[in-house]
Design goal:
The protein is of the alpha+beta class and about 110 residues long. About 30% of the residues lie in helices and about 35% in strands. The chain is globular and about 40 Å long.
């Protein structure tokens, strides 16, 4: 998952996944983005999403890779891999977000209460 240069959340997926089927049926989506740290910060996002299928997804998948990982050593190889794997791209337009949780556990749970 990453943030496109247009400010949309982008997620690489496969057309047969449940999330893709659900977005095609109803583009209203919610997403929770969690920290890599257990008990770390997280934020809830609401918006609308669209699914881009191949071949239209190829160049947006290139941008997806760039915003997450930078330059690829062989873009032709990457394009071929995305096509060979049958990837699609989900693009989410944010409409609202929050709260940002500071993470951790409520005191009573941490104390065994």
């Amino acid at each position: 998952m990453g943030l496109s240069t247009e400010g949309r959340v982008v997620i690489s997926s496969y057309p047969e996944r449940a999330k893709v089927t659900n977005i095609r049926r109803n583009p209203a989506v919610a997403l929770v983005v969690m920290s890599d740290d257990f008990g770390g910060e997280w934020v809830h996002l609401d918006g609308t999403a669209e699914v881009l299928d191949l071949p239209d997804a190829v160049e947006p998948l290139v941008e997806y890779f760039r915003v997450i990982s930078g330059e690829h050593p062989d873009w032709d190889e990457y394009r071929q891999a995305m096509t060979g794997q049958g990837k699609c791209l989900i693009r989410m337009t944010l409409e609202s977000w929050g709260p940002i949780s500071k993470g951790g556990f409520p005191a009573r749970l941490a104390e065994g209460g």
